[in-house]
Amino acid sequence: MKLTGFVMLVAGWGIVLASVALLVSMKPRTIFVLAGLGVEVIGLVLVLRSHVVLEDETG
Amino acid sequence: MTNLPVPTLSEGAVAVCVFCIFLVPLAAGGLALLNAGLGRSRSAAHTMLASVCILSVAAIAYFVCGFAVQGFTGQPAHVLRAGGQQWDWIGAGPFFLRKFELDGSPASLAAGFSMLCAGLAALIPLGAAAERWRLRAICASTALLAGFTFPLFAHWVWGGGWLAQLGVNYGLGHGFLDLGGSSCIQAVSGLTALSIVWILGPRRGKYSSGKLPNAIPAHSAVFVIFGSMLCWAGWVGLNSAGAILFGGATPGQTVLVAVNTTLAAASAGLAALVVTGLRFGRPDASLTCDGWIGGLVASSAGCLFIKPAEAVVIGTIAGVLVTYAVEWFEFGLKVDDPGGSISAHAVGGIWGLLAAGIFVRFPINSGAIATAQSGSESGQFIAQLVGIATLIGFVLPTTYGLNCLLNWFLPYRVSLEGERQGVDLHELGADAYPEFVVHTEEFIQR
Questions:
Q1: Domain contains B324
Q2: Tens of pLDDT along B203-257?
Q3: ipTM, 2 decimals?
Q4: Which residues does chain A have within 8 Å of residue B400's beta carbon, measured at their own beta carbons?
Q5: Domain-wise residue ranges, chain A
Q6: CATH of the domain at B319
Q7: Which tens digit of pLDDT belongs to each residue from B275-299?
């Protein structure tokens, strides 16, 4: 779960970079930047959640 | 070399900037006191010595390779070409500051300023990882942060890198804006603190009795409050020097920066005081000081281009955010952060960056940043979002990976016996207060 979370963090950043570099008009660029941030938020939740699970298991 | 114009400073601006840079060590002293005060008495000497070691290692690491990585606008840099534009991704400056004149030029002032900022940034993870982080590991991790992570992000923001070029290259406002270091100092080190706490795990006894964490009280409210006051003075210098160097502020405009910084801290501290007072029946000194620091952190990004009333709003929201974030990390996410560093610096820093995108208005011809770049105002918020995405999507995985690697070679955590004794006795052989402190009852068996 933690690895998946980190992969999603990097993937979200990749979406943000690609939208800045490849899209010209402001509206689609804004949508894709927000989408990339959304992917990052999901990744962050996974990483944070994996830490809580780990702490619960180790007591 | 970057495509941004090289800033020029008047003699008066250089003098004010030098004075402001000299104030920055006060913030480092304040953070050291804050970190020591928020820990237990049996780790106070260790925390203070670790702070001295951190400042020493950070200065040397920055001297060896930090400035080479960071560079400055107009200095050599490695550039990638993508989408028809150049992406300036890392500095190509001299290692060991060879053949680099420290003569009062903007580049030399930025080098001196950033050397102190590297030390300040490296102090922040110590607050989160105190009482269980070995001194050798602290030094190694500091070298990593001050020699690579901090300067790399600082190059992108302060050194004319790709984030600063977002305005010129892609029409996103004036490029990513962070004058006083909400991102490259605060958020980078706050996220590094989170990574290190994940690697270390909580202090023994913190989560031993069921779901609720045990309270491990701070040992000196006086240290904490005095440290917060010192931070205020240091932050005024930090934000003012940053505004002159990276925002083109005139000496007179530092008054606005100082007022904004003070108002943000004041409103954040009061907001935290009121929130804790309402929730717990009486104000909480530690959380109030964390809120105060959160306000200082949030004020940094747009300190030159916001109005005082907006600084009050930014500070108030920062104070409330930090207060709830401390509780959320401790109770919900099982992140043991005795200094509240992650909440104050990472959460406060990211809020400051977002707030800059919301509130900042650039006056015409108000300095280098306003005259040099031609992006639309509406794109400024997107530029700020791109910077925040870079912090979460690049800096967090990178710093976690690098610290995991370092932990594999040089274990970060002290032994169980070391934690039982306290790191003062275990690592230094002497307590901070040998004559009057008895701390056997402080340790709760896991």
A1: yes
A2: 988 887 666 788 888 889 999 999 999 999 999 999 999 999 999 999 999 999 9
A3: 0.96
A4: 6
A5: 2-54
A6: 1.10.3430.10
A7: 999 999 999 999 999 999 999 999 9
Identify which of A9, A20, A51 has the shortest CB distance to residue B396.
Answer: A9
Return the residue in B394, B413, B445 with the most chain A beta carbons within 10 A, the one to mutate for interface testing: B394
Establish if B416 touches chain A: CB-CB under 8 angstroms: no
Contacts of A58 in chain B (CB under 8 A): 201
| The pair of three-digit structure tokens given for residue B416, joined into one six-digit string | 């169980």
The token pair at A22 is 């490849």
Query: With contact defined as beta carbons under 8 Å apart, do B118 and B150 qualify?
Result: yes
Burial class (CB in 10 A: 0-12, 13-18, 19+), B281: exposed
pTM score of the predicted model: 0.94
Find the mean pLDDT for residues A33-49.
96
Domain carrying residue B429: 23-442
Please, which residues bridge with residue B79 across strands?
A: B88
- CB of B61 closer than 8 Å to CB of B113: no
What integer pLDDT is reported at residue B371 of this predicted model?
42
> How many independent structural domains does chain B possess?
1
Per DSSP, B90 falls in state E
CB contact B346 to A (< 8 Å): no
